[in-house]
Design the sequence.
């Protein structure tokens, strides 16, 4: 351990001694680097200016929804411009079309700036938690840098607006073509509905017939119940009358005196010549028809007639109920078919109308969107570039610091290399 420490101490001492012996070399190299950096930074390199324009991006679909909120906005993907994020806008700024338009407008070809050069001059950035995009242009001419930044910002908004209008033009053309087809479909369905309404025995008429049959069958059933009750009453009355008739004789025997029949007494007096007083005491036995029997008989006959009439009426009512019930069932079947047919047609009409209205609304929306400045609504210049006052490069002090550090490193390397070369030469000579 002691030998190792001594070896390390000797090695470190030797290194320091080498640096001290070669200090002039190190200082000289460092001074040369510093002087070179000074000359280049202050006299060779042109000053570089930075112009910055700031764009603000927003969602096109959200913007349109706010504008068209009264008409529900654009609901179909076909009628929407693709969703554009801040990063998407940022990547599109370097679009060759935008770059070429900038070159053409500013005549940058005269100063030998190509699309590649222009792209390399552009520095894009976004501000965290915002929808702002920075366009920075660095160039030796501050006026040119400012013009390039502003022109790129302007051409990019025009590019976005043109693309959006192209997209909405395609959507509008599609909507217009589809609108014609949907109008034909709607007219066809409406014609079918009119033909349905012109058919005999429509739904309303069948409904009235069903209601009428229901009222009629209700009345028949009520009359049938009354007839059944009346039949029971008549049957009961007939049974009582027939029972009473069996216990009532059809004739009755009467014992009378001639005084009860003056006319008959006068006849006998004329024939016998007897005194009327004597005749009045004479008793006569007679048979007469029993009026109670006759009354019961008449009542029974009347009850039988009424019962037969009631039974006939009951049977007739039963037949009427059955026939009316069948007619009602058939009418209900016809009504159900009509209702189903009407419901089917009405659904077709409703769907066709809603589809037509939807396409008409979207056609109007895309037509308005096509003619509006969509790009200005979604990407706008919030801070145009102004002519910079001070250059941002070259960074002279930074260049000097780097040159100083680099000179020291090169000087140290040369010092060690020179010492190594000297020692290795002495060693080789001693060995020889």
Sequence:
């Amino acid at each position: 351990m002691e030998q190792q420490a001594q070896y390390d101490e000797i090695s470190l001492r030797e290194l320091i001694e080498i640096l001290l012996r070669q200090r002039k070399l190190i200082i000289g190299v460092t001074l040369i680097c510093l002087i070179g950096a000074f000359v280049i930074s202050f006299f060779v390199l042109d000053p570089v200016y930075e112009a910055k324009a700031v764009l603000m991006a927003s969602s096109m679909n959200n913007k349109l929804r706010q504008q068209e909120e009264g008409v529900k906005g654009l609901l179909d993907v076909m009628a929407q411009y693709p969703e554009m994020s801040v990063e998407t806008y940022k990547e599109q700024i370097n679009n060759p079309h935008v770059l070429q338009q900038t070159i053409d407008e500013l005549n940058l070809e005269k100063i030998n700036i190509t699309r590649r050069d222009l792209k390399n001059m552009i520095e894009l950035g976004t501000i965290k938690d915002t929808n702002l995009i920075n366009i920075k242009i660095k160039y030796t001419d501050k006026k040119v840098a400012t013009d390039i930044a502003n022109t790129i910002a302007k051409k990019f908004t025009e590019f976005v607006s043109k693309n959006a209008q192209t997209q909405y033009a395609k959507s509008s053309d599609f909507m217009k073509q589809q609108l014609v087809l949907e109008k034909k479909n709607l007219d066809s369905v409406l014609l079918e509905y009119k033909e349905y309404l012109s058919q005999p025995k429509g739904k309303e008429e069948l409904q009235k017939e069903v209601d009428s049959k229901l009222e009629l069958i209700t009345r028949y059933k009520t009359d049938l119940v009354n007839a059944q009750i009346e039949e029971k009453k008549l049957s009961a009355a007939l049974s009582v009358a027939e029972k009473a008739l069996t216990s009532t004789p059809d004739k009755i025997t009467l014992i009378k005196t001639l005084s009860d029949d003056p006319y008959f007494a006068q006849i006998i007096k004329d024939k016998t010549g007897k005194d009327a007083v004597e005749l009045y005491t004479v008793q006569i036995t007679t048979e007469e028809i029993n009026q109670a029997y006759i009354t019961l008989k008449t009542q029974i006959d009347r009850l039988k007639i009424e019962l037969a009439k009631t039974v006939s009426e009951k049977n007739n009512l039963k037949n009427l109920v059955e026939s009316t019930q069948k007619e009602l069932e058939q009418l209900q079947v016809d009504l159900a078919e009509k209702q189903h047919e009407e419901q089917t047609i009405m659904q077709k009409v409703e769907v066709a109308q809603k589809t037509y209205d939807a396409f008409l609304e979207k056609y109007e929306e895309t037509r308005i969107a096509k003619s509006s400045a969509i790009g200005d609504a979604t990407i706008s210049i919030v801070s145009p570039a102004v002519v910079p006052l001070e250059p941002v490069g070259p960074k002279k002090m930074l260049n000097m610091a780097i040159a100083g550090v680099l000179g020291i490193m090169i000087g140290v390397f040369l010092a060690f290399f020179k010492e190594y070369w000297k020692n290795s030469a002495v060693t080789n000579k001693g060995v020889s």
